[in-house]
Write a structure and sequence with these properties.
- The protein has a domain of 134 residues: Rossmann fold.
- The chain contains nine helices and three strands.
- Strands 1-2-3 form a three-stranded parallel β-sheet, with helices on one face.
- α1 packs across α6, α1 packs across α9 and α2 runs antiparallel to α7.
Length: 374
């Protein structure tokens, strides 16, 4: 498909939607990272894309590189840097975004989330054709196409001039074979030039024809949608009528069921009350029995505790009596020993007194002897 045809098909739907108040929140431009170089066709396509968008709308553009699974990571990253630094730089400088698509649902969601954050904007081509009423050939994108066609026609004219000169030379030299070859080549070049001229002149007419076809298709879609809506409304009305009839027919049955349900509920409540009453009485009796049993157990426990306490006191009393008896015996032995010691001490004092008396007697005797000697 040629660049001109791409332009016609891509714009027609967008312009009709723009006339109906629709704007774009985002535009996605896809480039294969697996391409070894950014060819001349790629350069022209991206230039055309920028002309379509306009500088003010590039902030809503997401440039997506895909086919990452078909290149080595290092090679892909080197190509990505080249794209960002050279070919996509004019758009990136206007706040366009460069992202990777890894052929996963998560990667797709990330790209869509980026676009959802944007404020809807108007494309330059929409403003030119709809707001300003310009001829498509006078728009920036149309001029870019015409520039390409004009350049190609210039090259072909130059080649045609060379062929004419060669034909004149062949005529002079009477070289019929070369003349025929040159005439054939000239016819081909003239045909290509006529085709390019036809495309250039037919840009507006083809755009209008495509617009009419698209508008007719949309009109048919709206008409079909209206017919479907009317049919659905009629079906809905029929169904609602049937439902109302069925509702009326089932209303009496529903009331009877409701009465039966209410009666059943009342019976259920009565039975529940009687059951609760019987259960409460049974619980009261069980509680009374439990209280009596607990009281008996408490009295038995008290008696057992008193008996144990009496036995403990008796044992303590016996131990105290045994200890008192032992103490009394110990005390008696201690008194006897003390008395024996006192008697021994008394005997010892007596002996000491006797010895002292003997010493005194001996001392007096010695004194007497000394007197006699003198």
């Amino acid at each position: 498909m040629s660049v001109v045809t791409h332009l016609q098909v891509a714009l027609t739907h967008r312009l009709i939607r723009y006339e109906n108040g629709s704007k774009l929140a985002g535009i996605i431009y896809i480039h294969r990272i697996s391409d070894e170089r950014f060819s001349g066709i790629s350069v022209r396509n991206f230039k055309m894309f920028r002309k379509l968008c306009g500088d003010s709308t590039l902030k809503n553009v997401v440039i997506v590189t895909n086919m990452w699974g078909k290149v080595e990571q290092g090679i892909g990253e080197a190509r990505e840097r080249q794209l960002a630094d050279i070919y996509f730089k004019p758009a990136l400088d206007k706040q366009a975004q460069l992202v990777r698509y890894h052929n996963t649902a998560q990667s797709s969601h990330d790209i869509i989330r980026r676009i959802m954050k944007n404020d809807p904007a108007t494309l330059r081509i929409q403003e030119e054709l709809v707001d300003e009423g310009m001829d498509i050939r006078d728009t920036a994108a149309g001029e870019a196409v015409n520039e390409e066609l004009t350049a190609m026609m210039g090259r072909h004219k130059a080649e045609m001039g060379v062929l004419r000169a060669e034909m004149q030379q062949a005529l002079k030299e009477k070289d019929e074979e070369t003349k025929k070859e040159l005439e054939e080549e000239a016819r081909k070049l003239q045909g290509q030039m006529d085709e390019m001229k036809r495309k250039s002149e037919g840009l507006e007419s083809n755009y209008q024809e495509e617009r009419k076809r698209t508008e007719e298709a949309m009109r048919q879609m709206r008409e079909q949608s209206r017919l479907d809506r009317d049919r659905a409304h009629a079906d809905h009305s029929t169904q609602m009528s049937q439902l109302r009839t069925e509702l009326q027919q089932s209303h009496a049955a529903a009331q009877a069921k409701e009465q039966a349900r209410a009666l059943a509920e009342e019976r259920t409540r009565t039975l529940a009350l009687e059951r609760d009453k019987a259960l409460a009485e049974e619980r009261f009796r069980a509680s009374a029995q439990a209280e009596n049993l607990a009281s008996e157990r408490a009295r038995a426990a008290a008696l057992e505790r008193d008996r144990d306490l009496a036995e403990e006191r008796a044992r303590a009393s016996a131990q105290a009596e045994a200890q008192a008896k032992s103490f009394s015996q110990e005390l008696s032995r201690a008194v006897s020993e003390a008395q024996a010691r006192a008697a021994a001490e008394q005997s010892m004092r007596q002996k000491i007194q006797e010895l002292e008396g003997q010493v005194s007697s001996l001392s007096r005797k010695d004194d007497d002897d000394d007197c006699v000697v003198m």
